[in-house]
Amino acid sequence: MSDYICHDFKTPRNDTSKRLPDTFKAIPILFFLSLVGSAYFMTMDWMAYKQAQKDKLEAEARKTELDDAAKKLQDEKASLDSETTKAETLAKWMEGARNVQPISVAISRAMPPEVRLSDLTIERSEQVPANLALSLRINGGSASEVGLIETGLSRLQYRSVSPQQSKEGEVIEYRSTLVRQEQ
Amino acid sequence: MLLDEIKSVLTFAAFKPEPDDSSVAWAKRYEGRKSLLINVSRSQTSWRSINKKGRLDESGVMEGEFADIAPQRAEEWRQMAEGGWCSVSVNNRFIISLENNMMRGDNVTDLMRTNPRAVLGPKFDRGKRYAMCHHPDTTASMLLACEESMVKTTEDVLKNIGLRTGRVCCGLFALMEHAVTEIYIKQRATSPGNAALVAACEGSIAVLVQQDGQWKELRCRSGMGPDAVETSLQIITPLVQKLPQGSPVHFISDGQDLKFRSEIMAHLEKIGATDMTQDDLLWRIIGFN
Prior knowledge:
The structure holds two protein chains of two kinds. By secondary structure, chain A is an alpha+beta fold. Chain A has helices at residues 26-96, 101-110, 143-155; strands at 116-124, 132-139, 158-168, 171-180. A four-stranded antiparallel β-sheet of chain A has the order 1-2-4-3, with helices on one face. The termini of chain A are far apart. In chain A, 11% of the residues are buried. Chain B has helices at 2-10, 26-29, 66-80, 108-114, 116-120, 148-160, 171-186, 229-241, 258-268, 281-288; strands at residues 35-40, 44-50, 56-63, 85-90, 94-100, 128-134, 140-147, 164-170, 195-201, 204-211, 214-221, 249-253, 274-275. By secondary structure, chain B is α/β, with parallel strands linked by helices. In chain B, the strands form three sheets. Chain B has a five-stranded mixed β-sheet, with helices on both faces. Chain B has a five-stranded mixed β-sheet with strand order 11-10-9-12-13, with helices on both faces. A three-stranded antiparallel β-sheet of chain B has the order 5-7-6. The two termini of chain B are 33 Å apart. The chains are: A alpha+beta, B alpha/beta.
């Protein structure tokens, strides 16, 4: 068809509005683009918010788990510290009791298997630290065991000074002061 | 009101032309909408609808005065036109004349509708509506003058039955504009210096003669009726005889009245006339352009 526009002589209207220029189409286009953009960002934010809430719950659960584990470890550490303290005390005692250990061993070896040593105390004299106060109780023994003890001690170069021996039934109580003999 | 304006911007309606914006082609104004085309002659009215796809659809014709026909067909026509907008072609009570040195310019078409006195000067007649078609290379122009009372009556009849007038034009003049565009503008380089253009529409006829590249004579007669072949030949023959032997003669008609077309072409073929008519040409011109 022809590209001319057909003539028109109708009665003109007074209330016609002029068509907006095409460049103004950018306004509704931008409006709809901003709507789409807002919807996109709102959706993304909402999804991120939900993910953050989920992550927070997971983190809180993990924190509780780790707190429990830390508490357990602290209890374990406290227990180990206590054991360490005890071990250190024992080690100190062992170290401090090193010079009387041979005496204890000699006394123990002097006891026959049927005799029971119920009490053994070795104390260093406060006035003369080289002297040791020995006190022991023997169940089911006799004077011969006391002799064996003295023999064993004498091998360690200790001499019993003012030994006291008493017997009450099956129990023999023996006290003496051990003096180190110089070679 | 403000809300309506915002709505029209957001729906892009504010960027579309008004349904009666005569500076935009009909097909563009009613893109994706149904519209109605009405052709009003002296003794009959024909109509054709354009569907949403922009194709010619239902049609009809009825004998009688337009003022009598319109109320009877009101319901049918309202269903064919979305928003009630229609394009009307009137084919009687008009005259086409040849003028020289008429004002030309981009705003002349608008000015012709709003203030024709400014364009026509002393040629202006208060009781007429005007349209113009210019020769592309010379100062000659075809001037259509239609009875204003008839245009107003037609508009009032349509308004009373709930239809709105998107365009009022003259079918014969529209056919001549179409032919001038095809012959003198599109084929400008090869357009003949001596030629005749015969246009016929719903019982009106016009003959335009060009000699030596100038529009020399134009004769027009409206409202003769479709059977006036002899009268038409009496108008055509003396004008065509003024042309040198072998000058091209173009014939164009509305494409509806096959009987009139074949009878007149039987005579015109003797002088080697070319028939530019196509099926539904009038509807295509007033419904698409």
